[in-house]
Amino acid sequence: MVDDRKLAVLRAIVEDYVSTSEPVGSKALVDRHNLGVSPATIRNDMAVLEEQGYITQPHTSAGRVPTDKGYRLFVDKLSQIKPMSSAERRAIETFLAGAVDLDDVVMRTVRLLAQLTRQVAVVQYPTLDASTVRHVEIVPLTDHRVMLVLITNTGRVDQRVVELPDKVDEIRVAHMRAVLNACLDGCRLNKVPDLVADLPERLPEEDRPAAATILSVLLETLVDRHDEKIVFAGAANLAAPDFTVGLREVLEALEEQVVLMRLLGDAPDKAAITVRIGSENPYLQGTSIVAAGYGSGDKQLARLGVLGPTRMDYPVTMGAVRAVARYVSQILAAS
Amino acid sequence: MVDDRKLAVLRAIVEDYVSTSEPVGSKALVDRHNLGVSPATIRNDMAVLEEQGYITQPHTSAGRVPTDKGYRLFVDKLSQIKPMSSAERRAIETFLAGAVDLDDVVMRTVRLLAQLTRQVAVVQYPTLDASTVRHVEIVPLTDHRVMLVLITNTGRVDQRVVELPDKVDEIRVAHMRAVLNACLDGCRLNKVPDLVADLPERLPEEDRPAAATILSVLLETLVDRHDEKIVFAGAANLAAPDFTVGLREVLEALEEQVVLMRLLGDAPDKAAITVRIGSENPYLQGTSIVAAGYGSGDKQLARLGVLGPTRMDYPVTMGAVRAVARYVSQILAAS
DNA sequence: ACTTGGCACTCGGGAATGCAGAGTGCTAGA
DNA sequence: TCTAGCACTCTGCATTCCCGAGTGCCAAGT
């Protein structure tokens, strides 16, 4: 009976604080939630909770506020993800289904997530590592120049202009293209370096310098894209009246790909939703991040999530992130 | 003599206000700038300037602040663009030269501009209208599916997956590709619709449905990209301690492509630098925008600029925008 | 062993007050 | 036409004061 009520009190504190964003006192608690006890009892419980580090008071004689540890307990044990209504799910689905290409999918996803959660949404482009080569195209531009286009099964297209050491004609290019595609078609991007290693040797003598140049650019493309692109949307949601953390820091972090990457984090578990609360974050203490992996089928391609104040509505945010991750996975699998 | 000094006073007010961001009074003026007259005289001049609408006082017995009209006069007649130092120019050049593709050019440009001006930078992707077709590629994916890739001379690549009404094989695709390229190679994108109008008729009967489908997707790609992509960077600079305007509005505008487009404005004159001050802006009164066109050679491809508080250092901002516009034009022309 | 009511205590935040400084407009004189 | 002086106005800042919300603790009740 004892511990049970304390947990209920913690839950109530988190919920109230999230909705009012003001420290919550013992009186207010018993009024709103029908705990069957008096404020004094609650006060005792709160004293214990505070001693254990789950809540704190901003200053003497103010109500209590959850600590990071308190939110953590709340998220882990006291709440469950709130699923989206079916109407919302339908809306998500149709909105995402309208995308025309990968860029569009990512763009729509990030905007949708920002709008749903009223927070800053962050989406990582699908990682190349897990994807496969669908086609490699070599397009002659001039005598000494070709454009190399790499198309992957996620719909992503990378292109580079390559300056060649010697003249090439349409026929030789076509041959190289055929060899290259025969070799690479359908293979995973991270296998590409191994597969092309001995490729020049299989070509006629005179093609080797050109082929070597092209291959080196191809490999460069792969590593360049290795540290992936990340986009965000909904920065305007940061301007909410109550954002205690330095706006400047957050905005700077958002524009710094590397930091953003760290924030999204590595996937400890593929499909699970990860929540990082306040000081658990590598940078940007004072904010929380709710993230999930997404990707077609079983293999996780990348991550997406939202960033918001520590005081956020975790159940619904997690619900939204989960729903969006699922639907975008579905869209990607279909295309 | 009379009017001359009044202008000098206005210039001094603008300069002081820009650097201190506090209303400037008559005493402070004569101290800092060595006008050869007494504060009282300045006060008279200020009274006149105020009556003419160039300056205003936030409240009685405060210093004066320039109005939009005042800034306008300052920009038009009282100041001249401050060129960048050669060291800065070199830095810009080498930074931009490191770009590997169009995306990278745009990304680097926008970041550079944000950093140089310490404001929000906005860059529009080169417009397709003015660019030309370099190559059209049709890549078979399955029996009923091809990928259409459009490469333009600005290095931009658009791709779409096309579902075909009937089966096609490699040979027929190659033929279509050849016809398409023969027809479109090097032509301006805005001419494409005319050029392809009668194209199906020049193909064998059985290819027509497939060709029609492909063409319709091609045209769709063109119009979709017509309203162009715009990117921004440096949002963190909005968090400067003194930003009177609603942060929220600005951030929202930044994420709204259409609004951003309007803000950058149409080019009244191709190479000139346009300055829009405060209420001259279609949206976002209270901010100023300094923009310029850029593009390889004579033809202007798109626009770039920065957005900042009305109280900004126009001469140096204009210098930075001009320099960046020039160098990015140069880079684009070279590639 | 908990729970409850009462009570004294603490502290933040808003309103009211007062003061100093900066800036102006006006007028009379050079 | 400019200058000097003077009275006036207003903001910003610090100080003070007070109210109310909320706590902790203690003693009494179940």
UniProtKB/TrEMBL annotation, chains A, B:
Start and end residues of each Heat-inducible transcription repressor HrcA C-terminal domain: 103-318
Domain HTH deoR-type: 34-62
Keywords for the protein's UniProt record, in alphabetical order: Repressor, Stress response, Transcription, Transcription regulation
Plastid keyword on record: no
Pfam families recorded: HrcA, HTH_DeoR
UniProt-listed SUPFAM superfamilies: GAF domain-like, Winged helix' DNA-binding domain
GO biological process: negative regulation of DNA-templated transcription
An example molecular function term from Gene Ontology annotations: DNA binding
Organism domain of life: Bacteria
Statement: the UniProt record of this protein carries the keyword Phosphoprotein: no
Cross-referenced InterPro entries: DeoR_HTH (IPR001034), GAF-like_dom_sf (IPR029016), HrcA (IPR002571), HrcA_C (IPR021153), WH-like_DNA-bd_sf (IPR036388), WH_DNA-bd_sf (IPR036390), WHTH_transcript_rep_HrcA_IDD (IPR023120)
Function comment: Negative regulator of class I heat shock genes (grpE-dnaK-dnaJ and groELS operons). Prevents heat-shock induction of these operons.
Xref: PANTHER family: HEAT-INDUCIBLE TRANSCRIPTION REPRESSOR HRCA (PTHR34824)
Family: Belongs to the HrcA family.
Name of the molecule in the record: Heat-inducible transcription repressor HrcA
Taxonomic source organism: Sinosporangium siamense
